[in-house]
Write a structure and sequence with these properties.
465 residues, alpha+beta, SP0561-like, Four Helix Bundle (Hemerythrin (Met), subunit A), five-stranded antiparallel sheet, two-stranded parallel ribbon, 22 helices, 12% strand, globular
Length: 465
């Protein structure tokens, strides 16, 4: 018995015959996880041919033939025949584009003030089976095209979810192994929901309110661990919008009183829904196992809300593979004045009484000092990330303006100070230039100056014991 592969072969029909092919497809490209989405399988997935798979994964059709042929032969001992007919045009992308246009028209109508019920009726065909990834792609497309700003999408994202809720509710919940970042996020959401339910019964329980405030750690980890990897995968819209909504919740917590407690509980519940029905499914479809290892690596630096992650899922890191010896002696590096080893430089920077970060000319984060008590949390996932997207969307324009002024030589520093938990924080940006005045990057320094500001009189060296 032989199996024939050709450009017009329907991938789902093939995968239904050989179930192991789903694993093969995901190994070829994480983007092909979308083929396992039950909603897409019922709709546009039915049309997906090997030509569509080739375009989606960006793997040449001939190589795709070879990889699938090898997988089928190894797992079944069947003969595989490759029919190199004229390349099929495919139909999946065209249908996906059609649906995206309809979704964008729906949302633009929403932003123009049209009635929700009327829009839901007009676009019922799309709404009964829209997927989380389609919603995420639509929002990102609107932002990327300039049709809506990130702030405009954020302002009505709760309504967007309401529009698509019926379809999102029937999606399969992401099921992952204990210790996997998604499993940890969802476990934290369960604990958050328990606290919300308690406060609905007893809103005066101050101990429970204080516990609920730890949800900020959950959001901080998402912003510093998951979002950077999504951005590197080309997915920026949903994380931009969710970051802004999370910062709204942070502000509610900072200004918490009896009158806005219910508003806070509703906002956190809505964020749980958005994470589990949009962010997490979309992330699982776009990130590889290696990406999830990077998300997991460094989570402890930020911490967890209410739980300790399981240990069943363990990522394999480059350190595991290569057994890097960080204790080995490194060569001396000649500096402008003096010379230090790499280890001495690292220790020196980590012992500075302030946090520093360095952003290169390309506006990407190249370094941060991993001190034990950083003011603003950082993790290794931030390295290589655009510094613009390290800030809430409503700060984008200001950060961009500072960097532009530094590059153009109009300014050399920008200094700010804020109050956080009764502490005074000094945040400074400095243009770094070489001996010829050429701009090399930006130094950010953050320091708690509360105790410095309160100094009076003097204390000399001889007074120290």
């Amino acid at each position: 018995m032989a199996t024939t592969l050709k450009a017009s072969t329907k991938i789902l029909e093939l995968a239904n015959e050989f179930s192991f092919l789903f694993d093969t497809l995901i190994e070829i490209s994480p983007r092909l996880k979308i083929l396992q989405n039950p909603i897409l399988q019922r709709t546009i997935g039915k049309r997906a041919t090997l030509t569509d798979v080739s375009k989606l994964s960006k793997v040449p059709l001939n190589r795709l033939f070879m990889l699938l042929s090898e997988s089928i032969s190894e797992n079944t001992n069947q003969t595989v025949v490759i029919d190199k007919e004229a390349e099929d045009q495919g139909g999946w992308q065209e249908e996906l584009d059609r649906r995206q246009k309809k979704l964008k028209t729906l949302v633009l109508g929403l932003h123009a003030g049209e009635e929700l019920e009327g829009l839901q009726s007009d676009f019922k065909e799309i709404l009964v089976d829209v997927s989380a990834t389609e919603v995420a792609d639509m929002e990102q497309s609107l932002i990327s095209s300039g049709e809506l700003t990130a702030q405009q999408v954020t302002a009505l994202c709760d309504l967007h979810v309401q529009v698509f809720k019926e379809s999102l509710d029937v999606q399969q919940t992401p099921q992952t192994t204990s210790g996997h970042p998604i499993h940890t996020y969802m476990s934290e959401n369960k604990e958050a929901q328990k606290l919300i339910d308690l406060l609905k019964e007893n809103p005066d329980d101050n101990n429970t309110i204080e516990e609920l405030k730890k949800v900020i750690i959950h959001y901080t980890r998402l912003q510093n661990q998951l979002f950077p990897l999504l951005e590197k995968a080309g997915v920026t819209g949903p994380s931009t919008v969710m970051w802004a909504k999370q910062d709204e919740i942070r502000e509610m917590i900072n200004k918490l009183n009896e009158s806005n407690l219910n508003e806070l509980l509703v906002a956190i519940e809505e964020m749980i829904y958005k994470e589990e029905n949009i962010l997490f499914p979309m992330s699982l479809e776009n990130l590889s196992e290696d990406d999830w290892g990077k998300v997991r690596f460094g989570e402890e630096e930020i911490g967890y809300s209410w739980i300790t992650p399981g240990a069943e899922w363990k990522p394999v890191t480059p350190i595991d593979i290569h057994q890097v010896d960080h204790e080995s002696e490194s060569p001396t590096i000649n500096l402008n004045t003096g010379n230090l080893t790499q280890k001495e430089i690292d220790l020196l920077l980590r012992h500075l009484p302030l946090d520093i970060s360095f952003v290169g000319v390309d506006e990407e984060v190249k370094y941060y000092s991993a001190t034990d008590d950083r003011i603003f949390p950082r993790s290794p996932a931030v390295i290589g990330r655009s510094v613009i997207t390290c800030h809430p969307s409503n700060s984008y324009d200001k950060v961009k303006k500072i960097l532009t002024y530094f590059k153009e030589g109009k300014k050399d520093k920008a200094i700010f100070w804020i109050k956080m938990n009764d502490r005074l924080l000094l945040i400074s940006y400095y243009a770094v230039r070489d001996e010829n005045g050429e701009f090399m990057g930006t130094l950010e320094a953050s320091q708690d100056v509360t105790d410095i500001k309160s100094l009076e009189g003097e204390r000399r060296l001889l007074d120290w014991e």
